[in-house]
TrEMBL record:
Coarse class of the protein's main subcellular location: membrane
Protein name: Ras-related protein Rab-13
Localization in the cell: Cell membrane; Cytoplasmic vesicle membrane; Recycling endosome membrane
Gene Ontology CC, one term: recycling endosome membrane
Coiled coil: none
GO biological process: localization within membrane; protein transport
Region (Disordered): 150-184
Amino acid sequence: MAKAYDHLFKLLLIGDSGVGKTCLIIRFAEDNFNNTYISTIGIDFKIRTVDIEGKKIKLQVWDTAGQERFKTITTAYYRGAMGIILVYDITDEKSFENIQNWMKSIKENASAGVERLLLGNKSDMEAKRKVPGEQADKLAREHGIRFFETSAKSSMNVDEGNSGKPPSADLKTGDKKNAKCSLG
Ligand SMILES: Nc1nc2c(ncn2[C@@H]2O[C@H](COP(=O)(O)OP(=O)(O)OP(=O)(O)O)[C@@H](O)[C@H]2O)c(=O)[nH]1
């Protein structure tokens, strides 16, 4: 029987509660958005298969609860991830400051050398912006990782129609040409 996919990538989204992790995944996997806020309980995942140069790439995207009380559950999933996406909200300074803590959590719980990516979500809310893009860009550079601003609401940078590569492919190759990222 033919295999359902050629490659499997496991990605994990982390970040403070309410920054939009679930919405980003729903936009990415189902091209949908909802304004209602239902906080994630523990952990959840969605799957999307993309076709790249004739290869079927299965993306398993894990959604973690941002709330502190779920930390023991969520950190247990770090080790299995090939890529970890750190998300903050551009209208919420605290969520950006906490990125340092999420970085620390990766160091303590994930496999050494795991690929990381920083996303500043809710870019559609420019009028309420608290975190300048330059500041996040600087932080990303300090950690040697890539950074994008996204909007799960408007789809900005959560679009499959750019490079055609999954985020993990860009993460792995560090392909700077594809300035957009498929998930972020
Ligand atoms: N304007 C705007 N609102 C967004 C965006 N992404 C998410 N939201 C809203 O922000 C709220 C929280 O979104 P979630 O995706 O549930 O946040 P989360 O990070 O998964 O939260 P936890 O599950 O508690 O960790 C919801 O009311 C969403 O509608 C965005 O890009 N733009």
